[in-house]
Amino acid sequence: MRKILIAYLFFTLTSPILASSILIPMDAEGQKNHLKAYGITYWVLSKQQKVQWLLNYRGGSFLLPDGETIRKECQIRGVSFEILSDAQAQGILEAISSPSQNQEAVILEKAPKVAVYSPKGNQPWDDAVTMVLTYAEIPYVTVYDEEVLDDKLVLYDWLHLHHEDFTGQYGKFYGAYRAAPWYIEGKKEAESLALKLGFDKVSDEKGAVAEKIRNYVIGGGFMFAMCSATDSFDIALAADGIDICEPMFDGDPSDADYQSKLDFRRTFAFQDFTLERNPLRYEFSSIDMTDKRKNVPKESDYFSLMDFSAKWDPVPTMLCQNHTALVKGFMGQTTAFSREQVKATVMVLGENRINGEARYIHGIKGKGFFTFYGGHDPEDYQHRVGDPKTELELHPTSPGYRLILNNVLFPAARKKKQKT
Fold first, then answer.
1. What is the SS3 assignment for 190?
2. Which superkingdom heads the taxonomic lineage of this protein's source (predicted)?
3. Is 185 exposed, middle or buried (0-12, 13-18, 19+ CB in 10 A)?
4. What pLDDT, on the 0 to 100 scale, is given for residue 279?
5. Fewest C-beta in 10 Å: which of 267, 276, 390, 394?
6. What is the pLDDT of residue 125?
């Protein structure tokens, strides 16, 4: 009995010393499934537990509270993890806090409520964001025009704009796909929905949706968009009240000299762009670099992530966390953005400097934030209509997909005022 009592007292007195944390390493060597590591982090946040995001420490690692259930969940999902003693964890945090280190520990406080703006029916293409959310096991809700116009966006912290055309020109697919059944059916469905919602034309309805999304961001929302949802969104804002659609799209002529009427003060990211007037061209405007990449061969198509100060600029640093600073390029309807037409107030997070491309940009609008990411699928170089979807089981360490998930966790961070 005396031995049992001594052992009990020893355990009670020493248990604080044996306290531990779980480190989810995010460097190339330490992590075998970067994408599911974000899902683990989100899952811990959903259990009302806080996480520390260790910016620039081993690829942007996560420090979690220790627990048998968390360890088991990591094992089940195939996520690499390390057990740290209290002293080891404290040592890492102290080293990160040193002014000599371009590192920072950011507290993540809650699991963001995620919404994806996407039509309810099946589209002849896949969406990288919904695929990676599903693979990482991060829950999301699908919303579309009815929910947006009914002011339902306030229920969500983070909104992704699926491959979309907010100008009412049906993705500029007219030239190549106007006889395709999916195009004809999609056009009918869009016109029917517009009438149901009280609009005579799809372009007017999509413009109203873009305006609601704009207000959502200004009010404090986080918006993420890829491919055509980036430039078509800004074009719709600039063309508010202006008919830029040719007759095959909306049944009547476009406004005369509509280019001169665009209001670039209303856009989020782009300015001084020229709209593509030809309805047969698969292009919205001069913002996109897809047709200006003749000197960018596939083998050398990479973009570099910018290096920010973790302590002074934690927001762009968070969005650029990765296990490599060089990310493989990929194309889309909107592949990249002309640097000349990106507003000076917008931060370029990733660029192909040789070709003058901004691939990954971020900005503030009102109380909210937006991020635009060029291209369609980070692991499918030239995804075409009807191509099979990417199997992320084959790309669990994808740097391009990591950038998407950085944005998903971004709203969970305890806000610090940006210094620059």
1. helix
2. Bacteria
3. exposed
4. 92
5. 394
6. 62
Please give the structure tokens belonging to residue 416. 């610090």
Q: How far is CA 377 from the centre of its chain?
A: 12
Per the CB < 8 A criterion, the answer to whether 62 and 413 are in contact is: no
Distance separating alpha carbons of residues 350 and 335, to the nearest angstrom? 13
CA distance 342 to 173: 25
Please tell me the distance from the alpha carbon of residue 223 to that of residue 296, in angstroms, as a whole number.
29
Domain ranges of the chain: 2-108, 114-293+331-389
**Confidence at residue 16, expressed as pLDDT on a 0 to 100 scale:** 39
Query: What are the pLDDT digits (tens) for 288-341?
Result: 998 888 888 899 899 999 999 999 999 999 999 999 999 999 999 999 999 999
Asked if 22 and 83 touch (Cβ cutoff 8 Å), the reply is yes
Rounded Cα distance, 229 and 249, in Å: 18
Q: Say whether domain 114-293+331-389 belongs to CATH 3.40.50.
A: yes
**Cα torsion 79, 35, 391, 77: sign:** positive
Q: Taking a C-beta distance cutoff of 8 angstroms, is the pair 137, 39 a contact?
A: yes
Asked whether 372 and 337 are in contact (CB, 8 A), the reply is yes
Distances from the Cα of 2 to the Cαs of 10, 12, 365, in angstroms? Answer: 12, 15, 68
pTM: 0.92
CATH 3.30.70.790 assigned to 2-108: yes
- Residue reference for tokens 């992320």: 392
